[in-house]
Amino acid sequence: MQAAKTYGNIIKKIAPEHNRAALSMIKGGLFLEKFRTGHLMDKQIPKALRYLNHYAIGNVLEALKHPEKTAWVNLFTPVEILQCFDLYCLSAEAMSSYLSGFYMEDALIDHAESEGIAPTLCSYHKTFIGAADSGIIPKAAFAATTSMVCDANVNTFRHLAHKHRIPCYMLDIPDSYSPEGEMYVVEQLHEMISMLEDLFHQPFDLQRLSETLERENQSKQYFVNFLDASVGKDYPSTLTLQMFMLFATHLNIGTPEILFFFRSMYEEIQSAPAFHGKKIFWVHLNPYYQETLQRYFNLGKDYQLITTEMNLDYMDTLDVSRPLHALSKKMICNLYNGSFERKAELAANLAKRFHADGVINFCHWGCKQSSGGAMLLKETLRDQNIPFLTLDGDGMDRRNSHDGQIKTRLEAFLELLNQ
Amino acid sequence: MLGYICKYTPVEIFEAMDTEIVRIEPSAVSFTQADTLMHSNICSFAKGVLETFGETDYEGLVFTTCCDSMRRLYDVLKRRFPEKFFYMLDLPRKVNEFAASLYEKQIRDMAMAYADFSGKTFHEEKLLEICRRKAESSRLRQSPAKEPSLRIGLAGARPGRELKNMLEDLNVEILFDLTCTGLARNFSPDSTQPLGSYSYALLNQIPCMRMMKASNRIKFIDGFRDRLDGIIYHTIKFCDIYSYEYEYLKNEKDIPIVLVETDTTPQCQGQIRTRIEAFIESLKISRGIARQKPDTGTSRQEDRPMYVLGIDSGSTSTNAVILDNNKKILASSVIRTGAKSADSAQRALELTLEQAGLKREDLSRIISTGYGRVSIPFAQRNVTEISCHARGAHFLNPDVRTILDIGGQDSKAIRINDKGEVTDFVMNDKCAAGTGRFLEMMARTLEISTEELGPVSLQWKEDIDISSMCSVFAESEVISLIAQNKEKADIIHGLHKAIAGKAVSLLKRVSPESRYMMTGGVAKNAGVVAVLEEKLGEKLFIYQEPEIIGALGAALYGLEDMKN
């Protein structure tokens, strides 16, 4: 870890004057990490997760090497369509997390704030803006975002598209479902597709999209089966790997590689030994770098994380015969859309279904949609007698999480679970 | 009576149902309840509404899906007051036929829901009549009689009534109100399709920042360029979406702009006033608008020397300077501000007079500045500390272009031109991070006096990073460093680096240029100065008594008054 910090400090030092060199160093660091995850990873980590880690790093590395074949996206963009144009999907959230892995988030956040961007904005967005505007990541060929879930999406992408002159499509997703709303989004998907056809001189293949959605359906089925089968089983992971799951459930869902990953995961759990510790269901993002949480949950013998509800934000089967309608519905009916009550109920149901001993909700700095509902979630879980803890901090800016505060709360909660 | 929040709310629908509906403006003084029921990191407006809603007699509240904080406020209020009418209107972000028909359907559903709740009925003819009446009355509205001194545009998120009153008092005309609540409700729906055309007109107004095509806003502003003197950009703490447009206007448009951030509590009034007045002062100077000849009180006598006093009533210290008509500093004093700023000002006045060997009646003019400037009874005029610092700095060293002032409870960066006029400024007065108060707190934790911080820190050996910017977090970080037996000098050096880092990012927001001058109490700390100089790559200009620059500037304003 010290090596990554020193390496990151060098990048930060040279970045203001030598963007290209900084980018080469980032790519070099990711290349080494790709090698490490391919050959030297801890054998305690389940094989499927090692595969995912290796694949995800390779994916970001390719996106940085081939900006002309890359789209900047958010976590909820319908990447299935972009895959049909052979584009790499680099999400603002994922790229920021990698940069934070190099301990660079502070300098990039400061860069964005000194431009005038609000300090209270989500750190993922600030880091990505800082990285793009200071020129250390190459500009993509296309950008696409959705309006749903998070206020920052539309504004961050508009800012980036304007500043770096990137063709950008923004999907407006209604907050609740209606047949008219579904058509409204389908129309927009058509518009985005024709924009992509013009930009990349490639006709859109609807059949290919249907096949992608078919793989997505299978992947999600394997994932749910895995979660059901993992009750009472030992399946160690780390906070970072838990975040990598978003690569599988969102950014690369529908690819053959991700289908392979979920299938391997499901097969692997069949022969997993029994687990006698406590299992925690996580809500929202996690601060993967946080030392106390790492100590308890990374390859934990006593405590393991089941998953975060973000990975299960839409689990209905997609209608592959009407792929655009299916994607439209998927976005409108996302768990994060609509009232918070719906989300709280579902979180409670999932925690019960997967036999969680407790639920931890993480309020990420700048995330109004999740912080604002923290108390509603608490009330819902309390009514159902599910032990619950809320932690405040930052998913990636180390300056906004305080170990002392997290440690006391977490340890008290774990003591309570063991009573 | 119903409340509403957003300018896209179809208030005329409710009026057509004979229901009064008003835009809600909370007046919470603290967020104790809201912090518990929601979270402290939520938009202050949402917290304010939650804090005060229980005390009002609204029968309900109409929301739009305007932002995440509002979506959650709706969820929380609905749970807390199940008997009231809360409605979430799903507002599209695009304006096209699809979006308009979607919005029309939403509005129709809303009218039905309210009809169910209230037993009233909605008729489209009534909607037409109300819209017609409103359009008529907006035509009759008269333009202001007095010629305004300046014309500014208002943009950003929901400024309170006070901000507009303040501008009116300063005789400033608001050319346009592009805030998320500024809308002259002037629609003319088509009588063949009243609701459809009304919905479209409502959706098709000048967009707010949550809409997709917000670039129209810039075109709108450009349309005023020939008349526009500057823009006041208002944002609310934890409402982030307007900062993007502020960034754009500031960095890409050549229009003077000031950012005013508030948390909707009445406690912000002083902060708003300082920023607005300083901005208006700088605009007037750059527009060459002469100030009115002041009332000098007593008649001037040319044969006897003239003395003026500048007094800077800050939150931590009260400073005073006496100048003679040759701009010579005769005396200056720096005292701690006590519980009552007027008493401290009186003491500073007496002390400085005594030092100069003068009597109260020898002073021809007294100008006040600083946070307490309006509550000094013996001052004849007040000027903001921004303008005074600029004036004082330029007087002491005409090469200075960028001023960094770190005082007890706030810090500011001021850009001035070769004439000493303010061209830009930013302030941090919301939290203790990066101020003298932060250092005082840390000194206490380290059991050392504030005066010792500088000299001790210069002995540092190990380079420690204090990662937390927040003073509360930083304090516990310092405690754990003490527990690790780290050297005091190294810890203090780390703290100084944190302060300097914060100061540099403040400076960066005003496009800083050499030479730099540092003012305020923290400029006496050699440790902070050393780290800053290293970060900036050049020597700072620091006056022997860095705390009196504001008072000196005020005194210079006094001399100028006497010459006019």
From TrEMBL, chain A:
GO terms for molecular function: hydro-lyase activity; iron-sulfur cluster binding. Keywords: Iron, Iron-sulfur, Metal-binding. Its cofactor is [4Fe-4S] cluster. Pfam families: HGD-D. PANTHER family: 2-HYDROXYACYL-COA DEHYDRATASE,D-COMPONENT (PTHR30548:SF2), 2-HYDROXYGLUTARYL-COA DEHYDRATASE, D-COMPONENT-RELATED (PTHR30548). Belongs to the FldB/FldC dehydratase alpha/beta subunit family. This is 2-hydroxyacyl-CoA dehydratase family protein.
TrEMBL record, chain B:
InterPro entries: ATPase_BadF, ATPase_NBD, CoA_E_activase_dom, Dehydratase_Activator_Redct, FldB/FldC_alpha/beta. Residues 309-558 form the ATPase BadF/BadG/BcrA/BcrD type domain. Keywords: Iron, Iron-sulfur, Metal-binding. Its cofactor is [4Fe-4S] cluster. It holds the Pfam family HGD-D. GO terms for molecular function: iron-sulfur cluster binding; metal ion binding. PANTHER family: BIFUNCTIONAL PROTEIN [INCLUDES 2-HYDROXYACYL-COA DEHYDRATASE (N-TER) AND ITS ACTIVATOR DOMAIN (C_TERM), BIFUNCTIONAL PROTEIN [INCLUDES 2-HYDROXYACYL-COA DEHYDRATASE (N-TER) AND ITS ACTIVATOR DOMAIN (C_TERM)-RELATED. This is 2-hydroxyacyl-CoA dehydratase.
